[in-house]
Specification:
seven-stranded parallel beta sheet, three-stranded antiparallel beta sheet, 10% strand, globular, 12 strands, alpha/beta
């Protein structure tokens, strides 16, 4: 069970004031000072619930006022930067295992690309009527010319003839064609005739910078991300490449490009800024394709589904629901339904309708339940941590200790049922609420991509403490995701109204891992199975460890404290992938094994998507 609904940690990550939703009349002002109950977080006091509750589907990342178009684009298309980082080429390069012939091919293709980059900068310099901007663009162009000279010197050392041996591959050609077309005014949504005046030509310079800036920022980002892999390495074959793009000089050039884009865009209309966003996004996607087009000689370990043969393999994805898939805990949703539909103390109840407590009684009862849950949960966690700290990973003792938490969760659930706070909720209201639940950015796309991939033999199971499976099903169904197996608790209904009773199926860490094991036991043994579990709390810990790949999403302090106490290691996903590539180059996905004591931490569903499915 999980009782808090809203916490500062959650609120700070949202594009709206508070993650609450209203599925009734949006004109009605429902504002409550109310303590909430969360089965994976701690009670943090009363929270004001605004009337508009995140009824809309997820928005773009929140962006502060005054942020320039360059920064805005980088934030909006952060997913693409993650996909680029997780390409096999970049992972192999970071690990130092990239075959030299592949790197030579990449450098040769990059020379073709950089020559086009210079031409695009020249065109932008001609178009702009701003003297300072001309100087800035000229400096950036000269930097690229210097980079070309360095590449040419390297290629001559290797004895490569670009014209004869390394003609443009299709991905490079598509990227260079896009840059030249943009620089010449062939921009979708812009008529060439409109670019005749100096003012209009300056717009074209802005459009061109919009197509050039993503490359500069992306390489600066990748350079910084890869710099950590040089630490402790006496010899890294691609040290110069990483040093070059992580250097202060290149970082400054990327920032200068962004400043120029902001400067040239300051007078553009909203529609014209939208064009720049489209150009930026297209350039990011072309950059990913450029990396993917580099021919790898060695075997890469990602994406996880890369060598998947549906006739021989099965990919089984497990996921928690509350705060892993969702922005708000499901108990918050059920509580809001109860609050909004609770009868006033003097309101007459229709004959034969299930008796419900008044709003005032509900507030008091829920507050008492929340307080008791939080105090006992914290005591339970602290008691677990009083045991002797494991020197090495100790799954058996962790499992035994988590039985204490399981007993506590079941007692807490029993108190909720006995209190009657969940009586009288309408099934249609619950389904409507589920349809408007906000899922974590990228979650829906990840599951949709798996379900729609006909070449992937994959099953998806959601294991959740949620009290009402109908809420989960309606939430996923509204996003077009109907192929999931939901393993959760279920409300009991009488003529579409909840009786307050719950059919308990998944209440605790032990229940979750038992369901996990049962699902795998029921899988046919005719295929090689690879399991991935995605979760965010102590309740997921056993399943995370049992899976071949356990991915922790979010930053639960209790999860880390308990895990560390029993010898569990938490490794950021990308460095973990690079290390695995370095150690296991050339082996297949069997190198991922459960009960290793290592869990991988991810910052977003986009990162999980890139790791499992690629771009």
């Amino acid at each position: 069970m999980r009782f808090l609904l809203l916490s500062p940690r959650l609120v700070n990550t949202l594009p709206i004031p508070n993650p609450v939703f209203s599925f009734f009349n949006s004109n009605a002002l429902f504002r409550f000072q109310f303590p909430f109950y969360s089965r994976q977080s701690h009670y943090l006091g009363s929270t004001i619930i605004p009337p508009t509750m995140a009824s809309a589907k997820p928005n773009k990342s929140p962006i502060e006022e005054g942020v320039g178009v360059a920064r805005r684009c980088w934030i909006n298309f952060n997913k693409e930067s993650t996909f680029a980082l997780y390409t096999p080429f970049v992972v192999c390069l970071a690990s130092g295992t990239l075959n030299l012939d592949t790197f030579r091919h990449y450098i040769a293709q990059d020379v073709h690309f950089l020559k086009t980059f210079v031409q695009a900068y020249e065109a932008a310099e001609v178009c702009t009527d701003d003297d300072d901007a001309k100087v800035g663009i000229s400096e950036l162009r000269k930097n690229i010319v210097d980079e070309l000279k360095m590449h040419d010197a390297v290629l001559k050392e290797w004895g490569i003839d670009l014209v004869r041996e390394c003609t443009l591959n299709p991905a490079t050609a598509k990227y260079t064609d896009f840059l030249l077309a943009t620089a010449s005014g062939k921009v979708e949504g812009v008529k060439a005739a409109k670019l005749a005046t100096p003012f209009e030509k300056t717009k074209l310079a802005a459009y061109t910078l919009g197509a050039l800036t993503p490359c500069m920022r992306l390489y600066a980002y990748i350079g910084k991300e890869l710099q950590v892999f040089l630490e402790g390495e006496k010899v890294h074959p691609y040290k110069k490449w990483i040093d070059s793009y992580s250097s202060e000089g290149f970082q400054a050039s990327a920032l200068q490009t962004e400043d120029l884009l902001d400067k040239l865009s300051v007078s553009l209309t909203g529609e014209e800024l939208d064009i720049i966003e489209k150009l930026y996004h297209q350039a990011m996607k072309l950059e990913i394709q450029f990396f993917l087009a580099q021919p790898l000689v060695q075997k890469a370990i990602i994406p996880l589904s890369k060598d998947h043969n549906p006739m021989e393999h099965r990919l089984t994805i497990f996921s928690d629901f509350d705060l892993t898939c969702t922005v708000v805990d499901s108990s918050a949703i059920l509580a809001e339904i109860a609050i909004i539909t609770a009868p006033k103390s003097d309101q007459n109840r229709p004959e034969n309708q299930i008796a419900r407590m008044s709003l005032a009684d509900f507030r008091n009862t829920w507050g008492d339940l929340s307080k008791q849950y939080t105090e006992e949960y914290e005591q339970c966690i602290e008691k677990m941590l009083l045991t002797e700290k494991a020197e090495n990973f100790d799954y058996v003792r962790l499992h035994r200790t988590l039985e204490q938490l399981s007993d506590f969760e079941k007692r807490a659930n029993s108190r909720v049922v006995e209190s009657g706070v969940l009586k009288g909720l309408n099934l249609e209201d619950i389904k409507r609420a589920g349809q408007r639940m906000v899922l974590q950015d990228g979650c829906t796309n990840f599951f949709q991509s798996i379900i729609r991939n006909e070449n992937l033999n994959a099953d998806i199971h959601v294991l959740s403490y949620c009290w009402c499976g109908d809420l989960i099903r309606s939430s996923f169904s509204s996003g077009g995701i109907d192929g999931l197996d939901i393993h959760a608790n279920e409300f009991m209904f009488q003529e579409s109204l909840s009786t307050g009773e719950i059919v308990m199926k998944v209440e605790s860490p032990i229940d979750k891992v038992q369901a996990f094991s049962k699902i795998l036991m029921n899988c046919r043994n005719d295929k090689k199975n690879l399991t991935v579990y995605i979760g965010d709390s102590v309740g997921d810990l056993l399943c995370l460890l049992e899976a071949d790949v356990g991915i922790v999403l979010g930053s639960s302090s209790s999860l880390r404290r308990v895990g560390n106490h029993f010898g569990v290691s938490f490794v950021p996903l990308f460095p973990g992938v690079v290390q695995k590539q370095k150690m296991c180059a050339g082996v297949d996905s069997s190198s991922w094994m459960g009960l290793s004591g290592v869990l991988y931490t991810a910052s977003s569903w986009a990162e999980i998507h890139a790791f499992v499915l690629g771009s």
